[in-house]
Amino acid sequence: MTQKGLIQISSSHVTLTETGKNYALSIIRIHRLWEKYLSEKTGFDKTLWHDLAEAKEHQLSKEEAEALYEELGRPRFDPHGDPIPTALGEMISETGTSIVGVPVGTVAKIIHIEDEPKSIYRQIIKEKLHIGAHIKISASENHHVFFESEGHSIQLSTVVASNIQVVLLTSQEVYEEGKVRLSSLIEGEHATILGISTECRGANRRRLLDLGFIKGTLLTLEYLGPNQNPRAYRLRNTLIALRNDQADLILIEKTQYDRTGSL
Amino acid sequence: MKENDTQDLLDLASELRWEVGENFHDTLVEGIYADAAQIAQKTEIKQGEPNPYSFERKLDQVLTSKKYGFPIMILILSIILWLTIQGANYPSGLLARFFLEFLHPILKTGASQVGLPWWLDGFLIDGVYLALGWVISVMLPPMAIFFPMFTLLEDFGYLPRVAFNLDSLFKKSGAHGKQALTMSMGWGCNAAGVVATRIIDSPRERLIAIITNNFSLCNGRWPTQILIATIFIGALVPDSFSSILASIAVIGVALLGVGFTFLSSWMLSKTLLKGEVSTFALELPPYRPPNLWTTLYTSLIDRTLIVLWRAMVFAAPAGAVIWLISNIYVSDLSLANITIDWMDGFGLFFGLNGVILLAYVVAIPANEIVIPTILMLTVAHLNLMGAGDGVMFELESATETAALLHAGGWTLLTGINLMLFSLLHNPCSTTIYTIYQETKSWKWTVFASIMPVILGFLVTFLVTQIWQVFH
Amino acid sequence: MTELEACDSCALNNSAQLLKLGINVDHADYVIALAGNPNTGKSTVFNALTGLKQHTGNWPGKTVTRAEGGYRYKDKKMKLIDLPGTYSLLSTSQDEEIARNFILFGKPDVTIIVVDAARIERNLNLVLQILEITDRAVLCLNLMDEALRHHIDIDERTLGKELGIPVIKCSAIKKQGIPELISTVHQVATRQIICKPHRIKGLSKPAQKMVDKLDKKIRKNYPGQPNSRWIAMRLLDADADVIKALKNGDFDQALT
Ligand SMILES: Nc1nc2c(ncn2[C@@H]2O[C@H](COP(=O)(O)OP(=O)(O)OP(=O)(O)O)[C@@H](O)[C@H]2O)c(=O)[nH]1
Ligand SMILES: [Mg+2]
């Protein structure tokens, strides 16, 4: 690497040269673009993204990377919430704090989930936590953090939790107490859609939007399939069946009365 | 339009896109729906009852319930199959008698009076004509029963409920719930089933549905199943039970096909087809009272006749080939016999025989000519007095057919393995062509054609091994 | 519906001028597309107009390829195109590609938008998108019999005013409303009726501003482009197809 002029070895430490920094940034760019691509256009499980991107980041030429960037609509963030450096090597920095230090009672929004090491990442994914999810810290002990998110109570060890970064909600964002996942609706119950989680992307998200799963829509859970999955929802006078993992990504507020009949 | 102007425009667009944020798509859809809601509110006039869909809701709750969902599905399938099997029997025999016993001799006499040379007469009348006659008498009646019944269910709105019920199983195997729809289309015709996979909106699941559609027994294969089940399995019990046991055996094979659909979908989604976009959303339309007469008319005239026509186009040359290989001799033995002897050893290894294997090669164009080819080749091979070399025919009754097959060395094992192999072998040439049309990929076309054959040999081999342990 | 039934018989003069041409569609004067959500009866309308027997069935996605047929009305020969159903023109999903591309780039003379009268709000999503692209369309308010059975009626005059296009109530399966549909399509095709299609208004203020800005630029670059606003929205959404079409110069023809 010294020969390529990417790093400089001085007496005490190794530093990146200017060229090296640019090179590193361009690799990061490709890595994050590829993760973005995997999340939008493929069905690979998110625990696999990192390794696939790791393999890809050295294969893609600059031109290919730019073509990809165009195809993806010039994205700014990768699916983990990390900024994608521009071709000129600029990078927006949005700083969050680890969830661990946040005082009890605070409401915040997840902006970053570290995907390494993998064992920890898996634990976070298992709780269905995702970028953009609102959380409310309910308690914190020496080794654990307790918080609410989308109607679920979650407990994480501090080691795991420290891989989640959050920011405080802006003035326009409100933490909704009654915000739960569509999958928690019981047969015959009614609800209003609050939104689709940012975790639902690409073709999946577009299809749901096209079908009318948008903010403010009223719906009813009409009946369940023989194995409780999929489930048939009535909205705008139409029955649409969704699988439960999709319903996990739609956020709702339960309502008392059936207003779907009146559209 | 100058190029830099376009580039300018695109640059401005990306700049604005940067400003407007990544969820412009959401904003756009929400905006459109907001307009839609406003207009709908102004123009919709509701009268009377607030809950007009309660009947449909009740019906749905039964048809998709944990308790009745699956039993009702299997019951409906069984009734349709049973009616098809039973109902097709008589008209099939009638048609066969007309084409093969009545018209065939007349044509032969006519030909000899006109003075056609023997080879042309044989090639045209014993080859091409008989193949066509057989395809019509075997295919037309079951299709004329199966398609209208299926269309009635379809118009009523039951099919999406089947997809809904089966989705959890398909999900477990990594496939799309709508594959249930394409699978049931495949019970009519695999080529139609493959085209129907276009309703599956995610490429990965669509490919899975295309590749596995062949595991749905198609029209051309039902007769093989029914005949062999009657001869070898129905015969195991007293006469009064034999047709029920035969029906059960056929339904068993059909369900086995469903099982293989799940299994191979699962294996594909774990190996070759890992990770491509998958979405699921199934609209369940309202139940609609079907229009009986229109349904009967359209399904008979369009579907049935179109499928029949296609089968005939393929059967005609196949008949010619059968006649030719039975009548071209290489030092005393016909080509057919040479090939059969050559394939016999290989066939017996899988509990089949050379006749069956050759029949499957000859019948690549259309599955429906498997049985007549088998019978004809058996006769030719044994040098029995049949209707003459290379003449496709149907024996008067199942007992006679049984006698012939037993003379050809067939056992219960051969029968069972033939039923299995008829389920698990390459798709017909129309389907292969359709698969290529739909996937535009040689790789997947070849895979979809070969994979079932390999599976077929594997299964028949295993069955043979197990059989030999017990005998 | 009684009104329509009465029309059915009095509109005999209509029917007399109709000649179903089946698949004989060479040298057509006008190209008419049938668009709409899945399972709204497009193929049924197609069959009623052309006398053909396209497959219909009560599940979304019955039609998967585009079909062509024709009819003659008042010495104008119409080529009718039955398209697969589509929920939206905004997506990139493969199953909707045929319909989407034809509606966007096929330039039909008239688009018949078939909607389910009992589910109008949901269907309007697609209607409003199509109206951004074309200014010659007719709304076929199909399945009226079913809607009425479920106690839903539609004020078609208000709807027509809101959308800026003619609205015809139909029950395609009973051939009700078909004569009116035929003569209205003819009038729109021959410009006896000029549509003034609805434009999407529900966007948020900032989004609207961006669209306007880009729209202005497009109109400067492509004067006379009728769907500039739509192109603007698609560009903001990074629609790869539209970007490609722009680069290939597919929109240049709109100049003429
Ligand atoms: N009661 C009633 N049923 C109708 C009417 N029009 C169509 N149908 C039925 O509605 C169902 C759908 O009709 P299709 O013509 O196949 O609908 P499509 O819009 O072509 O559907 P796709 O091809 O799937 O997009 C069929 O079962 C028709 O018989 C109508 O006016 N009244
Ligand atoms: Mg159709």
What does this structure look like?
The complex is a heterotrimer of chains A (263), B (471) and C (256). Chain A has 263 residues and is α+β, with helices and mostly antiparallel strands. Chain A has three domains: 1-93, Winged helix-like DNA-binding domain superfamily/Winged helix DNA-binding domain (Arc Repressor Mutant, subunit A); 97-168, Ferrous iron transport protein A (FeoA) (SH3 type barrels, Roll), CATH 2.30.30.90; 180-255, Ferrous iron transport protein A (FeoA) (SH3 type barrels, Roll). Chain A has helices spanning 18-41, 46-56, 62-71, 118-126, 158-161, 202-210, 244-247, and strands spanning 7-9, 14-16, 97-98, 107-113, 134-140, 144-149, 152-157, 164-168, 180-181, 190-196, 218-224, 231-235, 238-242, 250-255. Chain A has a six-stranded antiparallel β-sheet with strand order 3-8-4-5-6-7. Chain A has a six-stranded antiparallel β-sheet with strand order 9-14-10-11-12-13. In chain A, strand 6 (144-149) and strand 7 form a beta hairpin. Chain A is globular and about 70 Å long. The termini of chain A are far apart. Chain B is built from 19 helices and four strands. Chain B is globular, with a radius of gyration of 27 Å. Chain B has 471 residues and is mainly alpha-helical. Chain C has helices spanning 2-10, 12-16, 42-50, 97-105, 120-133, 144-149, 156-163, 178-189, 205-221, 228-236, 240-248; strands at residues 18-22, 30-36, 67-73, 76-82, 110-116, 137-142, 152-154, 167-169. The longest helix of chain C has 17 residues, at 205-221. The model of chain C is unreliable at 1-13 (pLDDT under 50). Chains in contact: A-B, A-C, B-C. At the A-B interface, helix 6, strand 11 and strand 13 of A face helix 1, helix 2, helix 3, helix 6 and strand 2 of B. Strand 13 of chain A pairs antiparallel with strand 2 (282-284) of chain B, so a sheet runs across the interface. Bound molecules: guanosine-5'-triphosphate and magnesium ion.
